[in-house]
Each structure stands twice: as structure tokens, then as C-alpha cells.
Task: structure prediction
Amino acid sequence: MPNNKGTLQIRNLSKSFIVDNNPLQILNDINLTVHSGAFVTIVGSSGCGKTTLLRIMLGLENHYTGEALIDGKQIIGPGSDRGIVFQDHRLLPWLTVGENVAFGLDKLKRKEKKLLVDEHLKLVGLNGFESAYPSQLSGGMAQRVAIARALASKPEILLLDEPLGALDALTRMYMQQELERLWLLEKITMIMVTHDIDEAIYLSDKVVIMSSRPGVIKKIIDVPLSRPRDRASSDFTRIKAEILEEFHLGTEYPFAYAI
Amino acid sequence: MKRFAFNKKTKAILGVFAFPIVLIGLWQLFILAGFSSARFLPPPYKVLQKFVILFSEPTYSHHIAVSLQRVMIGFFIGTLAGFLFGLLMGLSKTAEKIFAPFFHAIRQVPMIGWIPLIIMWFGMNELPRVLIISVAAFYPITLNTFSGVRNVPREYLELASVYGFKGLTLIKKIIIPAALPSIATGISLGLAMSWSVLMVAEIFIQTALGVGTQIQRGRDRFDIALVIAGIITVGVLGYAMTVLVQKIVQAVERGRVISTEK
Result:
């Protein structure tokens, strides 16, 4: 790694919401370190607090106990050191693709902006689309634009909140390859929330398994496979079985995901 | 291909005129059947004749120009004020709590209810006429701007906060563009309201110039042809303005919802 930026540390983090005047524990004593340049995936059933955890990393949730640090500094609010890709592409329909990519680049001069937009559209394979509108794009293309927008402000950590969840299976697998390519190229930390176990194994160095009520980290599984990974290899399926075991979904339900 | 398009256009134009032509025919039949004396309902050609006379002298175009100008000034003031007020109430829950009940109460008073007060305060001047027109535009524009601003998708606001946009930047980059379709609806409703209260303003706050004045003059002289000509003028001009505004709104919308074929 060229630098050591983009290290995330979560220490003894707990969070609860107030529901009907009663506190409801969402996250309980989360401890997690993501090293600079790593690809870490958080999987878990819905309601396990994985999205809340990601929102804390992003700086949108500020009321919790414990610590959330980036490069040793406490997270206070969103910042340009972190980028985000949501499940919905969240492109602004009144802006062109190019203007959407430039959305966070307000402070730059027009020329620098254009350079960054061109560079990042090329990076996601959408050069020539800058004057198109989001409504003209397919779901996969729109999500690439969202990735380009997040990367254009040069974050140290890219947070991905089920970014491929709304895509069809084939586009999804193709986009997984694309994400891996971008990660290798940009050499930044990526933290992704997903409920697709194959996707998690395909992409990550570490898979963080969370369970719900309250949300705790159940297990962290290393994925020591070489890249690009073969989804059909025995090592891949072995790790998948190991993860499914954690969800009490042994081999009798080989098709099932966590729901 | 081209012939097809021409046919469609001809059909559309025929569609617009079909019903009025039928109506004029019935009107003529009504008179031919002797149901009405010419004094109370002049035949259609008398009204046409009236139009020819009216437009042959420059004064009628001048009346129309004065009315149009009056509406435009009132509408512009009402739009600006309504936009700002709607924006304020949309952005701030406190402002909504303070102003909304008052706004909704005062909105219940029909424009004609204000006339006596406004005449006593301002006299028979241009100011109260324009004021009434602007207030009429103000209501729908305020309401639609308010709801547009309030209903900006939460997802867009979250995106803005991720990029640290606050205050004026947030308003300029997210809130106004997201609320624009609703604001545009308010503007076209506002224009329709302005145009319809123009008659109230011109007939009740007497003046020398304006289409409404002509209708009033027709009444004073028992010139029903003139009254009908005035009413047709108001209807046609109002319709033309509505179509124009619709075209503008469509142009605004086109910027965001582009067809996928290009």
C-alpha cells in the first residue's frame, strides 16, 4: 500500500433507538478494525444493525457509545475521506451523468472538475455518457455512475450499502468483478454491507457476520483465496458452508440466503 | 409519414373548434326558432360584427394590452411572494406553525370579499387591482411550493448531508430542483387564478381601460353583443395563456424525464 490512510476502528460501540419510549438496542459492543486498503464485507440478516453500523461509519448517525475512528480520529459527521454508494443509485434526475459525478466537487475549478469527471466515467466504463440523464440509463449503468460519483472525491474509504442489491443476477456478478477491478486499481479501503454470501466471499478479505437483536458481531471469517476468485472452487464452497453454518443454514438448504 | 403527421394536426385543430361551432349552430337555431328576442340574445353574426368593429379601432387592442399587462404585473408579484413564502414554510416547521393557520384562514375569503375594504383603503386605483390579482396567484403558488419543498425525497437530503451541503447551497442544489415540478404546477394554477380575478378587479374597481371595463360598458349600454364579445375575448386569451404555460412547464419537465430513445 502506498499509504496507511483509510484505517477504520470501531471500539466497544453500542447504539440504541427509542421505540415507544423504550430503548431498543440496535448494536451491542461492536469491535472491528478494517486495515487500510482492505475489502471487508458485513453480512447479516435484516435488522442486525449492519446498515446502522455503516451509517455510523459514514457519520450520519452520531448518538452512540464507544468509539468510531478513522486513522485514529473520531468520526464527526460525513467527510470527504469517505465515499458512499447506496442501494438505490440516488442520482439526481435533473442533473446529467457528468453533473451527477461532479456533485461533490463543488470547490474545484471547472477544468479540474471536468478532468475528474472524465477520469472517473472512464474508470467505470461510461465515457461518452456525461450528457445523458439518469432516466436513460439501465440499473447497472446508474450504479456505475453512483460509484464514479463516490470515487470522484477521492475517498480513503468507500462505503457500500448493498450497492448491487437491486440488480439482476447476471448484472450483479458482472458488477462484482467491476468492483474488484476498481478496488485493485484505486487501492482504497472498501467496506460493503450485503446479504449475498457469494458476493461477500467473492469480494472480501474478511467477512464480518452479524446477528440480530441486539446486533453483535458473531464471527469474522478470513477469505484467504487468490484473486480473481472462482465461485465454483472447492475452497469457495467450503468458506460458503462455513458462513452458512453461522446462520444455521447447513447443507440441507444449500440455496438459501440469510433473510 | 409526413401526411400522417399533418392529418393528426388537422384533427387536433378540428377537435378544438368542433364544439364551439356546434354551440354557435345551436345558438343560431335557438334564435331562428324564436325563443329569444334579439334584444336579449343577439344572433352570432351580430357578435362577429361587434368583433370586427372592436378590432378595427385601436382601442380594443389597447384594452386587451392593458388587461394583459395588469395580469402580468400582478401575477409576477404574486409568484415571487408565493414562492418565497412557500419556501419559508416548507423549510421551517416553526414558520409553518406560525403562518399556516393564518394563511389557510385568510385563503377562505373569496377575492370579491376583499373588494369593499380594498376600495376604502386604496380607492379606485391601479394598485388595488394589481394587488387582488397578485393575491390570487399567491395562494396556489405558496401551497404548491410548500408541498414541493416538504416532499423533497429524504434520500436526496441524506445525499446532500453526506457531501456537507447546507443552507443556501442545499436549497439551490437539491431543494429547488427537486420541488420544481410542484412549483411549476403552482405557477400554472396561479396564472389561471390571476386571469380569472382580473374580471373582478376590472369590474368592481372601475377603470377606463381593460377587457373587463368593456364588459361593464356593454352592461351599462345594454349592448349584449359587446358583453358576449368581451366574455369570448377573456375566455380565448385565458385559454391561450394556459396553453403557453403548459408548454413552458413541459419544457421544464423535459429536462428531467427524457425519453429513453435518443
Summary: Residues 1-36 of chain B form one domain.
